[in-house]
Amino acid sequence: MRVLRGAGGAGLWILATLLMLVALILCVTILLLPIGIPLFAVGLRLYMRGVKLFLPRPKDVRQAGEKAAKDLGKQVHRTKKDMGKRAHHTTKDVGKRAPRTQKKVGKGSRRLWSSVTGH
């Protein structure tokens, strides 16, 4: 569908260019000026229609925006879920390591204290 719309837009641009060229030639001759000016305006309108054919329809833009928002919501939900799992495993690991770490710190601080005080 996009290809057909693009081809139609290109065809309108070519037609508008030719029409505006004829209008400019008519405007050069003073007697045909009243015909050239409206013809030039018609050419400009054809250019605008061609541009509208090249751009996506509002319905397509709205659907793409809704899909992007939905995908972003899913991605945020997955990330939030993964972060929760990581945090849960981290607290489990810390809970297992804490007694060993306390023993190591305790021994090190006792050694340090004994070397400082001399006892």
Name the features.
single chain, 119 residues, mainly alpha, 2 domains, 3 helices, 0% strand, rod-shaped
Give a written overview of the molecule.
The protein has 119 residues and is mainly alpha-helical. It has two domains: 1-55; 61-96. Helix content is 92%, strand content 0%. The chain contains three helices and no strands. The protein has helices spanning 2-28, 33-54, 58-117. The mean pLDDT is 79.
Task: Write the SSE topology.
Blueprint: H1 2-28, H2 33-54, H3 58-117
Briefly say what this structure is.
The chain crosses the membrane at residues 12-42. With 119 residues, the protein is mainly α. The protein has helices at residues 2-28, 33-54, 58-117.
Structural class: mainly alpha
Number of discrete domains: 2
Number of helices: 3
Strand content is under 5%
Distance between the termini: 89 Å
Whole-number radius of gyration? Answer: 38 Å
Helicity range: over 70%
Q: Ranges with pLDDT <50 over ≥5 residues?
A: none
Largest sheet: none
Mean pLDDT: 79
Number of beta-strand segments: 0
Characterize the overall form. rod-shaped
Q: What is the H/E order?
A: HHH
